[in-house]
Amino acid sequence: MGLFRDIYHMFSEPKTPELYSCLPSCVTRKLEEGRLAHLSVDDMIIIAPDEWCHYVDNAYRYNGSISSYEYDCPQGKLFITSRRVIFKSYRVGFDYSYTSLTSVELFDDGLVLQFGETTIAMGVASPKQAYEVLQLMKSSL
Fold this sequence. Notes:
Layout: H1 3-6, H2 25-32, E1 53-63, E2 70-81, E3 84-88, E4 94-97, E5 101-107, E6 110-115, E7 118-124, H3 127-139
């Protein structure tokens, strides 16, 4: 099911931003093997010496209520590291510790992430792979 198309379609048909994946192919290959990739993202985000980036792809953050849509553009990039879930964007970025992630729900076109009392709906170019990375990280704790 599509997060934005299926759940909220009864109120209006939004034109969701089009996302094109920039996910490195090594991420998908590693996930098929049940392992996490280690990506070099030093030129995009600051990570600690013992922190690894396992996922990066284009995304946007959804803000709004059921009766109205608002997509925070410009689009950004979603990063999942061994310690954090980061959305890098010029207006509405976030950086949460992975350990504060309380739930994640997968949709055809995105994810809903919950960090404590904060719920974030996102359109993601490769949501299945992002979800798989989060599940593999959970199983390695």
